[in-house]
Give the backbone structure.
Amino acid sequence: MNDHLRDRILRKLENLSDERAYQVLDYVEFMESRYAERQNPPANVFQRFAETVEDKLRQGRVSASTISEAMSLMNRAVGVLNGVAAAGKSVASDIVGAATRPAPGGPAAPPGAEGAPAASQPATPPTSVPPTAAPPASPPPAAAPPASPPPGAQPT
């Protein structure tokens, strides 16, 4: 459908009452079932749920204004749930990306391997150490002093 035709239809629909708008919706769904050239993209789970509730309310002969109010509340809830779902997907993809990204300066270790960085640690080195600097050499371990006998013990 071209944009001009869609805008013209929307202008006409804005002037109708909710009862008449539902009649138009019924007619559009009938026309779609008979003459649609292509399938609509599938609605997400939340939209399908909201549409099912709306259809049930209409079958129950609930007034159009009550359905309209209920659907506006459901649409806001669907918007919130879609946002939560998108945030969850984003967090999951970030976790997967962090788990599959190799550690800086070394080969990637399989998850759960000893010495693997924890998921809560940052993937970049601390800012106080330049990334090209070698770690400071540690001093050799000191020799342990000989064990002294306990006080009052006889030397052998």
About this structure: The chain has a mean pLDDT of 75.
